[in-house]
Fold this protein.
Amino acid sequence: MWKKGLLVFIVSVVVLFLGYTFLGEKKSNQPLKVYVIFQEDEGRILLETFKKKTDQPYEIIRMSSGEASYHLLTLGKTGIDVVLGGPADLHEQLKNKSKSLRYSSSAVSSIPSKYKDSDGYWTGMYMGALSIGVNQTVWQQDPLLASLPLPQRYEDLLQPELKGKIEIPDPETSGTGYTLLASLAQQRGEDQAISLMQALKKQSASTTFAGITSAQRLAEGEVATVVSFLGDQLRFKNSGYNISSFIPPQAGWEIGAVSILKGGNNTKAAKQLVDFMLSKEVQTDYMNTAFSFPVAPDIPVNLLLSPVKLENLLATYRFDLAAQHREQLLRQWRAALGIGEAL
């Protein structure tokens, strides 16, 4: 009888141990650490939805593309699991420096090859175009601008009447700014690109840290016109601001991507987040929140984007070249401004 009791006791202990182990793995409190390169409020909404579906805690760190590049490429182990958003050239840098992990989500097959890394290190989530944004109210109330045609080419921003009334993002800190510089370099050559960027900077009231800041200052009427991503401008237009947008001929564009980092502490949850972000439901919701173009062919474009002709963009723009030439282009940019090497 005592042997039977002992056997029952041993079995109970084993079951309890296995149950504890299983639940411990399933209910891990290890937070998923995510660098979010797009707007923080959008990132929090997405990660809160992910948490509700998976019971996965998270930490969100909002960074510009330039900040993320510095932290991830020049510092040691960061403990970050996922880079969410930001132009594909940032994710190409991470791949080239062996900072990211290869992962092919089950949703990747529906995304065209031009919107994802052929080796599986990053996958596009959305697509955005550079645009000249104009605050119509500011423009019409300025006696020097009211009679001028609205700017539709980068060169139109160099008119003397616009001195101190435009703004561009800094290519060193902003993915938007670097996309502008890199796309001009690929279209016109590096010398002409640097020359135009320098002229735009001289015209600018300031160069902003991030592209969304330029769009925000435009909406608030602090400047008359900016260069930023179209989605950021439409975000404020949709909120009632009197903003018009014009995509310049052969404009640069971005693929906002997601990649998983080496050295993170929660790779399993990172893969789950990638699957979540690439699902049709999340993709559709995000397109209508961020006013970006979908990368999956079966997702309808937001009505505010329907007039945009994507064939007018720089079709030959290459993210791998933008990544490879980043340090060289930024050195030329700093030299043209006479500010030396960045810290």
About this structure: The chain has 13 helices and eleven strands. Confidence is low (pLDDT under 50) at residues 1-27. The longest strand covers residues 123-135. Residues 235 and 290 are 7 Å apart (CA to CA).
